[in-house]
Structure prediction request, 487 residues.
Amino acid sequence: MAVVREFTLPDLGEGLTEATVVRWLVEVGEVVAVDQPVVEVETAKALVDVPCPYGGVVTARFGDEGSELPVGSPLLTVAVGSTAPAGPGAGGDRTPEEGMGDAGAGTGPTAPGAASESGAGKPGGAAEGSGNVLVGYGTSAAAARRRRVRPAAGAGTAEPMRAERAEEGPVPVISPLVRRLAREHGLDLREIRGSGPEGLILRTDVERAVRARSAAGAGAGAFGVSGVTGVTGAPEAAGTYGMTGAESRTLAYEGLPSEAERIPLRGMRGAAAEKFRRSRQEIPDATCWVDADATELLAARREMNAVGGAKVSLLALLARICTAALARYPQLNATVDMAANEIVRLPAVHLGFAAQTDRGLVVPVVRDAHRRTAEGLTAEMARLTEAARTGQLGLAELTHGTFTLNNYGVFGVDGSTPIINHPEAAMLGVGRIAAKPWVHEGELAVRQVVQLSLTFDHRVCDGGTAGGFLRFVADCVERPAVLLRTV
Prediction:
């Protein structure tokens, strides 16, 4: 007899809490094998094909393409032990809420009774295990299915919990974005009732609470009373109509024209936006720049590529210069541990480089860049760039960088003030290389000039260190033979 098992969105690593369904790879009624990819999702880091740890017939899918699902929500159900396509009443495409309703009623393919029959003690149960390791799923047996509690009617109103409950246990929040949203609006998460599984507080719960408080504040603000503090005073002290600045901004957005286009900040674009905001908010950055004559560097590259063999890219030469400069100025290969109030200097250089794709800006990371030659850097950067363009970068290839190289010259611009890739401490920006008048050996000549800019975290070093780093980079660009001293 077939046993129906529910496959939930696994924790894909790096603290990700949600993913967007990009494309379903299987249909309801289709037979799937163990470890077969069933759905393509977009996380804040990359596109990921999610394999199913069960083999059998797909009886239901949860979530339309383009919908955002939290980690732990149902993806699909599989009738394990059945090879016949499921009938018309087997489920079809359903929303996660409908799936939780079935579980709560104890009926349908996700009934608790069915789940209990698939325990490890059942003969042959281990044979259906997955060889892929997914967080929350074993490699030889299915994970125990948690009973999902459907929110009671009215639970989605974000009503405050009782005071005595607010002091019990940890706050049921996973997403750091939810915590930040609540903090920015001055909300106490303990006073919000979550509508997610097992009382999990979701972003929609916080947004609903903000709107509810804004409405209450607007009513009280007409009499010069703050909707948050309940203290009378001048409108300037409490915001528009007696509300806080955050609340008045919320109402301002609600007054935008209905025909205005709204583009959700999700996936990679949302992750990039959050990094930019956090970098500007937390890092006291400063920028210095210098023009450099790149004529000799271009000539050296031509000579390298004239002898045959693998071609060396200009970006790889700049990366090689960066690793040599970081060896001389290790203060910039660092991060700041705010919890411990310490500067952490990192022993290895994992060099990120900015790459623009159709899906937004990504920063692939070259591991142990300080150990690679110019040829090795060229090959690895080419591989990572192609993977970025096709959306096939893994999480390990997008995280844990220690320094970033940004070649914005490909866009035809001379200079920029880069935003540091949090939590790194510095980023080197490279503008376009253009023919310009330049004094060379005492005479005016047309040379190939590039502007270099370094944005750095002023907590990890002073201007002297940053200036020394940038000057060394410029010297290597103008006289590549300087690199021979560090080879």
User: Anything to note?
Assistant: The first strand starts at residue 3 and ends at 8. The CA atoms of residues 53 and 130 lie 4 Å apart.
